Amino acid sequence: MSATTSPPAGATPRYIGQAVARKEDPRLLTGQGEYVDDLSLQGMLHVAFARSPHASALIRSIDASAAKELEGVRAVLTGADLNGDAHEMKSSYEVLIGSVGPVLEPLASARVKYVGDPVVMVIAESRAIAEDAIELLEIEYDPQTPVIGYETSLANETLVHPEMKTNLASVLTSEPDPALDRAFANAVHIVQETIRQHRYINVPMETRGLIASWHSGRGEMTFYSATQLPNEFRTFTTRLLAIPENKIRVIARDVGGGFGQKAFVGREEAAVLLAAKRIGRPLKWIEDRWENLVSANHAREELVHVRIAFDADYRITAVFCDHEEDIGALPASGTSLTTGQMVGMMFPGPYKIPHAGYSTKMIWTNTCGRLPYRGPWMMETVAREIMIDIAARRLGIDALELRRRNTITEADMPYTSATGMSYDRLSIDRTLEKVAAGIDFEAFRIEQGEARAAGRLIGIGLSHLVEPTAAAGGSFGIEVANIRMQPSGYVDVYVGTGNHGQGTETTMAQIVADTLGIEYEKVFVHDGDTDMVPFGGGSGASRTAVLAGAACHAAGAELRGKIVQLAAHYLEAAPEDLEINSGKISVRGTPTHFLEMTEVAFKAYNDSPSLPPGMSPGLEATARHAADGITFANATHACIVEVDPKTYRVKVLRYLVSSDCGVVINPAVVEGQIAGGVIQGIGGVLFEHFAYDENGNPLTTTFMDYLLPTAADVPTIEYAHLETPAKGPGGYKGVGEGGAIASPPAIVNAVADALGMDLPSQPLSPSLLFAMVNRAPTS
Amino acid sequence: MKCAPFRVELPSTVDEVVAALVEHGEDAKILAGGQSLIPMLAMRLARFDVLIDVHHVDGLASIQLDQNTIRIGSRVRQSEIERSDVIKRHLPVLAEATALIGHFQIRNRGTIGGSLVHADPAAEYPAVALALGATFEVTGPAGTRVIPAADFFLGYWTTALTDDEVLVAIHFPIPEGKRVGMTVKEVARRHGDFALAGAVASIGLDPSGAIVETAIALFSAADQPLRLTEMEAALTGHSPDSLDIPALSAAAAAGLAPGDDLHGSADFRRHLFRHLIADVAAEAITRAQEATNV
Amino acid sequence: MSEDVEVRLTVNGDGYRVRVEPRKTLVDALREDCNLTGTHIGCEHGVCGACTVLVDDRAVRSCLMFAYQAEGTSIRTIEGLADADGTLHPVQAAFREAHGLQCGFCTPGFVMSIVALLDENGAPTPQEVREGLSGNLCRCTGYQTILEAVDIAAATLRATSLEATR
User: Fold this and answer.
1) In chain A, where the domains are located
2) Which residue among C45, C96, C137 sits closest to A29, beta carbon to beta carbon?
């Protein structure tokens, strides 16, 4: 299989690069989508969970007798009833890298470890009745002192998991490096600060949910799931139930967003699968919003002690990233070890830094567990970019100039970072200059001076990143495409992705249509059903365009080759003389002498005697693509904000993104990914905060307290794209996460610039901003 | 997140509402627009055996203009108040306050009576009623009584209504023919959120331009809407030009003890009030000065 | 348990006779009893707007209304917007054109809110649009393309009504 770049030889790209209308939209716009809660099975029962009201407690007793007697209740299951059915509760990634934490159990059996920990499962004729029954449960707890606050957790003698003997889940440190130490020792300037961010979370508009149906006669488990990773959910279930994968079918039809939250099988989902097998009736569990907020796992509560060494010219000579993260009590299986390392390895980011070191600690607390959220390692960009501005302020150099002086340029490519990341075909300096020009830094400084004189606080912020996309961890490193041209000439494409908003049905169809030289309307992309699609990694980690796209290119090229060969046979021409245009195959230069692709397709299946000797019938090709390391992309963000000195509300006046994600398949999809990410980051800094009190009680358990940004709170995003093709097939780079990674520091830097002060911690809610301004010495 | 079970009664007269309240006592709750009650039921933070749904009760859903009063039935929806020509003409501040309540989808169901009886200290209507000297027409087993706004709000989600009484209407005096300016402002985290701090002002001028009547009420400042009586007294009888309104506002704000939570510390809320009080006072004066006799 | 009540609902012009508990919300009845699953449940406490439907032409949260309360009203849901021949409503068409959706879960609520907004004000200012949409939450798009879709739909609807008056 050869690596090709778009367009494939002989074809004119008609669809790649165009903002074609999405194939998903007609059904989704008319209320005909099929999200998991839209589906019902005959005889289906409903599940609700009783959850811990304590951050840490021993379960003394559970009396379910009254709940069981309620009319409409079919079963009440505790951990003691159910957990023994679970064979192994591990993600494939945890199997690959080895366990890092306590054994997960579907329901808490002896000890609850956070508020929201599932304890009892009620199965009833309706969700309402199940909730009625929960009120009848008598659960006796013996509350324990909880461990709250990861910054003090390691010094705490109280343990989240007594059997683990420590609250330190993991620690990883880069190799000792005398050159690094020398660089710090010889530095002209050292700037250090602790940068913190706060807990904020994925919050897909559709909560988690599944319908599990056990067929005892066939010994088969079928489950409909809101999942990003259908195949991973299947292999997880193999281990959970100890039945062959062949007897498990995972179906994800339409999925209402995930942002990482639906990439892991939750304990509740495992409990539903186990109970469905035991009860023999289909079970539906649709998480409600309270459950989603308190228990669907959390992210982003972390800090970095940053140290940066500069020479006399303000060139960075060394950095050290000392990272700590709160992973709650029960983080998603296998995810919290390597992400911390990624924070350290990506910390140098877009800058030429000769020496870099890192340390990362993952720390347990009695709060909801961590899971990956859009750019899970993004603390590297947050800490670095906030720190660059702090350094600029302290050293008395302009923040743009400081970045310019240290940015890796195109002339430096290929470039290997001090932490061993290999960058190539990046345009890091060019995106920086694009936004600097687009936002007109010099003009802004003049405007800012005038505004200050008039009592207005406006500021500008930059953020600059290299984004590792399609990072090749575990099954995320591979993707598959199986392409079948049917006898009608229409094409089915089966990919292992789990489309949950990315427009995969559209973008992969664009690629295949161009690769085969047929109409977009004739290509149908299928994913999300493990009985239909081959094994693939799923959707997440900014991987779909890079890996599924590459697989579609490869399978499409192979299939095209066969079609051309067959057509050459019928046209009595040499294959290399043929071209395909809009479904017609002709000898180059004689467009009137052609074969309809539909004729070729028909013959391939229905007229096998006419095929060339040795050619197999049918038109089908499958390609598996394995990631060749990480596909890096780059972007620079700039924004201008105004802080209202009366209300301390921050208004984003301008937001400009220059992103280089390689070849753009569909600009509307790409901009949609960037915009969605940027607004999540703005939301995270200005509005969102999942907060606990000192006893571990969650404070933001509704949408009245956990504040998502609305249409009235967001800027109009301006774009200045660059397209530097990646080395891989099609030239695509990922773009799913960069927006959410880069926007938080851009906003923080702009607010800090407006106020003329360092802002090393978040969120920047009006009340907290007021406190920071009034606590800080006046500048 | 499903409500606990309940029964519904659908009375068609105020007397039937009262009879149902008498019969069920604390086990019953009146359901008006439901925009605050239904979320509480869904989260099972509240539960009642019986909901007395007042949607079919005659006479609760009209806006009537008398000589010096607008009578608003308790079940009049917020969106109807927002759209009402009578209110826009005679009591525009009420329409302005309504536009600050939640989102338009909420206002399409939410009622004025429901909001007032719910008595959330962060809500707009209670403070407006207090500033404007509204009176509450309340019916119970002993008949109808009228409660002045100043006596109606007693604390967090608590009013002077007894368990067997229903709010029938609210009467707002209108400043017909006077030079009165009114305004309302608030600061919220996002558009449509409950206010972190809010203020309502109504200021009347005499022909010479001196302030003759002042009412300033705050919301989200305490456990109930709050009148700034000291500041009102300091304004009344003076020409606006002779007043240092920012200083008076700062003094008034410094005396407040607002709530302290994740979204706003007490210090921050005092800071907001300092500006809000000054802003509503100044704007009410400006509006009074611009007011032409109608 | 409270007694079920019989409720007659008119949804998109079709009559439904359903038996529900008084506690059943309108959105649950639409989804479970009328099999109209296009109206989604995002929070069940009246904030996210995913369940927005039109009741007598006014946009409401169908999670903050009980099914029995819809007796005698005329309800319009996302399923009732497109023409019988499948032609999308101008708001739906504008969403498609502007890529105003990604995962699509919040979309029906947005579309219904926008239909109501533009029905009341055919030429809203950008600020009116943003504030009007602030009662609907979207986590995918960052609202950019939804705002574009409103502009496109408003223009289409204005052109259509101009044509109709000629």
Assistant:
1) 25-33+473-626, 36-144+202-295, 380-469+630-775
2) C96
